[in-house]
C-alpha cells in the first residue's frame, strides 16, 4: 500500500503532462468535421510545413554540431592540466548562467550587436569598411537564428560534456606520451573514442534543445522565420491558421522527432557510463 | 659509468614547497633502485622528472651519457607503470600492450608476436581480449607492465604500482616484477612508500625525506646500518635509547642509571649525548631470577602483539621502554605481568648523534612503511 | 605532450575565442542602453530611469516573481514527499519517475501549451484565465525534471533509511520526520532546485505568450518591439537577475556538489 503516497504525484503528471500531450497526439488525427483522418499528417509533407521541418532540423543540427565541437574544445581547454583553477570555475559558472540566457533578452542582445544599427555592425562598417547588410546579411533569418542559438548551445555543451572530460584520466594522456604517442595520436586512439558516447549524447541533447526552442526565434524575427515552433505559435497568436488540428499535427511531428532523438540518447548514456569507471 | 644519472635535481612548487632539494643518483645498467619514503618526500616528483612529465628547476638527467633533461616524454624511450587507471579503457589488454608498437609503426605480424610474448611473460596469455574493466587490479597492473615493456625501453619506471592492490596480490606481484626485471636485465627505478616492498625487491634502496636522499645502499645495509635517525625510524622497527657516553675506550654508556656496553660508542667523546639503536629481534628476554647479567635492563612485560611466527613484547620498567621480538613459542613462556631481563647486544647496536631532529622524527607518527 | 608549466597554447586560444564571443553581445547591449533617444549616441542613463519609472515593469516583475514563488512552493510540496517516499519505500519506482522526468524533453513547452489550452478550455475561469492557476500548473511540469534531478541527487547523498528510522524510534510522526529531519538534510538540493525553477519561470515566454498572460518576459518582448534603447537596459537587468539566481544556485549547490542540472532555458 506504500504506493498510495505517490498518487498525488502521478495524478499531477497525468493531468498536466500526459493529458495535454495525449490530446495533442490524438488531435493531430482529427478533422474539423469530427472524426479521424490522416490528412493533417499528410499536410505536414506539403509546403510550407515540410519547409518548416527542414529548416528546424537544419538549424538544430548546425547549432548542435558547431556548439558541440567548439564546446568540447573549450571544456577541454578549461579542464585540462595546466589551466588554473579560477579559469575552470569561472567557465563553469559562466556556462551555467549563459546557458540560461536565452529567449527574449538574448534576442535583443544580438539585435544590439548585429542588427542593422547594432554596435558590431556599425563598427565593421565605419572602421573596417565591411557593410554586412549591404552584402545581404541579415540577422532576421535562419542564419541569424543559428548565430543567436549558438550563444546558449555552446555553454550547454560545456556544462553537459564537462563531467565526461573530467573523467579523462590524466594518466591516459601521460601513458600515451610515455609510449611515444603525440597529442593527435592520443586523441585519435584514446581521447575521442572514450568520449564519443558522451559527445554524441550531448549533441543529441543540443539538437533537441534547439529544435524545441521558441522564444528566441520568435523575438528575434517577430515570428517571421519558418520554424516548426513558430508555425505552431502562429496559430495561437496570429490566427493565421484556423484549423487547430494542423497546429496539433505540427506538434505531433515535433514529438516524433524528439522521441526518436530520446531513443538514441538513452543507450548512448549507458555506454558512456561504462567507461566512466 | 652510471647508466642513469640524476644530477643535483631541484624542484620547487608554487607556495615555496621544495619537493626536491639536490637529488643525486647513479644507477648502473640493469640495476633495480627503489626510491623509498613517506608521502611528500619527493619520490614521485623525481620519477616524473625522469619520465619527462615535469622539468627540474635545476639539475640534469643523463642516460647513457646523453643529457635528456629537455627531451619530450614521448622521445625518452622509457616505459612507465602508473599507480592506477592508466590502461586505455576503450582497448583490450592486447590492444593496450601493442599501443607503443603501433605508434612506432611496427606491422601487424610483428605486433601480435610481441604482444603474445609479453602477455605470456606477465602470465596473462589467456586474457588478451578482455577490457580493463573486466580485469582485476592485479591483472590490470600486469597488463600495464607488459605495455611498458613492449617497446623495449631503456629504463623501466614504476610509480607505486602496487599501492592500490590487496596485500596478498602485492606480495605476489612484486616478486614477479623483480623476476621479470632480472630476466630482461632492464634498468629500473621504482617508487614506493612500503619499506618491506623496497627491501624485498631492490638492488639498492634510496630513502628520501623532505626532498633529500637520506641514504642509498643495498637493502641489508639500510636495515642494519641506518645512517640517520630518519632512516632508522623508517626502516623496520627500532628501539631508541637516549644515553650519554661514559667511557669512550671501553664503549660504556649510561642510560637511565644503568651502565651498558655498546661497541659502536667507542671513539666518541665522554659526555656526548647519543642515540643507541637496537633492533627488536636482537633483544634477548629471560625471566628475572635474581641474577643481574651484564648489559641488561629490567622491566615487566606489559603487552604482547601476535605477528604470526614472531610475537612482539613490550617491556617497561624504570628507565626501560623496549620492544623485543621473540618466537611465538617462547612468548608463551613470558606472559603479561612477568618480570624479565632484557639483554642488549654489544656489537649489533648502532649509535647516532642525538640531535633535536632525531627527537622530532622519533616523535612523528610512524610512517606507513611499517 | 610536453613537460610544460602553466596553460597550453591551444587552451589559451579556445578560452580566448569563447570569452570574446560571449562578451561582445553583452558589451553591445550595454553600449546600446546608454544611447540617447534623440541623437542615437552616447551617453545617458535615461533608458534605465525609464525602466525604473515604468509601472508595467514593476507590475509584471511582481507577477512573475509571485508565479515563481508559487511554482516553487507547489513543486516542493508535490515532489519532495514523493521522491522521499520513492527512496524510502519504493526504490523500484525510481527508474519510472526518472523516465517520467525525461518526458518534458520530448514534450517541450510549445507542444505542451497546445495540449493544455485544448484540454482545459472548459474549466472555470479562476483556473483557466488566471496565471496563478493555468500558468503555475504548467510551470510545475516545466520545473519537474530539474526538481527531480536535483532532489534525487540530494536524497542519494544522505542515508534516508537511517535518518527515518532514527527519527521514528525517537517517536516522531511522518510529517515531523519529513519536515524536521529530512528537509534540513536536503536543504542544499532543494534550494538549488528552487533557484533553477525561479530562473525558469522568470524567463518562460512560450506558454505565457500563447496563453496570453502578462508576465515579465512578455513585457520584455513588448519593449523590444517598441523601444530600442530601454529594451537594452531591460535586457541587461534581466540578465543580471538570471545571473543572480544562478550564482545563488552555485553557491548553495557547492556544499553538496549538486552540479546536477544547471540546464534550463527560456528558449
Explain how this protein is built.
The complex is a heterotrimer of chains A (277), B (370) and C (267). Chain A is mostly helical. Chain A has helices at residues 7-27, 39-43, 49-79, 85-98, 103-114, 119-128, 142-166, 170-178, 183-211, 215-221, 228-238, 244-274. Chain B has 370 residues and is an alpha+beta fold. Chain B has three domains: 4-232, P-loop containing nucleotide triphosphate hydrolases (Rossmann fold, 3-Layer(aba) Sandwich); 237-279 and 346-362, Beta Barrel (OB fold (Dihydrolipoamide Acetyltransferase, E2P)); 284-343, OB fold (Dihydrolipoamide Acetyltransferase, E2P). Chain B is 26% helix and 34% strand. In chain B, helix 2 (93-103) packs across helix 3 (108-121), helix 2 runs parallel beside helix 4 and helix 3 crosses helix 4 (137-150). The longest helix of chain B is centred in the middle third of the chain and has 18 residues, at 167-184. The model of chain B is unreliable at 365-370 (pLDDT under 50). Chain C is 75% helix and 0% strand. Chain C is globular. The longest helix of chain C is centred in the N-terminal third of the chain and has 34 residues, at 55-88. The chains are: A mainly alpha (277), B alpha+beta (370), C mainly alpha (267). Chains A and C meet through helix 1, helix 3, helix 4, helix 5 and helix 7 of A and helix 1, helix 3, helix 4, helix 5 and helix 7 of C.
Which SSEs are present, and which pair or pack?
The complex is a heterotrimer of chains A (277), B (370) and C (267).
Chain A: H1 7-27, H2 39-43, H3 49-79, H4 85-98, H5 103-114, H6 119-128, H7 142-166, H8 170-178, H9 183-211, H10 215-221, H11 228-238, H12 244-274
Helix pairs in contact in A: 1-12, 3-7, 3-9, 4-7, 5-10, 7-9, 7-10, 8-9, 9-12, 11-12
Chain B: E1 4-13, E2 17-27, E3 32-36, H1 43-51, E4 58-63, E5 66-67, E6 78-81, H2 93-103, H3 108-121, H4 137-150, E7 155-159, H5 167-184, E8 187-192, H6 195-201, E9 204-209, E10 212-217, H7 219-224, H8 229-234, E11 239-247, E12 252-255, E13 258-261, E14 273-278, E15 284-287, E16 296-306, E17 310-317, E18 320-327, H9 328-331, E19 339-343, E20 350-353, H10 356-363
Parallel strand pairs in B: 3-8, 3-9, 6-7, 7-8
Antiparallel strand pairs in B: 1-2, 1-4, 4-5, 9-10, 11-12, 11-14, 12-13, 14-20, 15-19, 16-17, 16-19, 17-18
Helix pairs in contact in B: 2-3, 2-4, 3-4
Chain C: H1 9-33, H2 46-52, H3 55-88, H4 94-106, H5 109-119, H6 125-128, H7 131-156, H8 160-169, H9 174-185, H10 187-203, H11 206-210, H12 216-226, H13 228-253
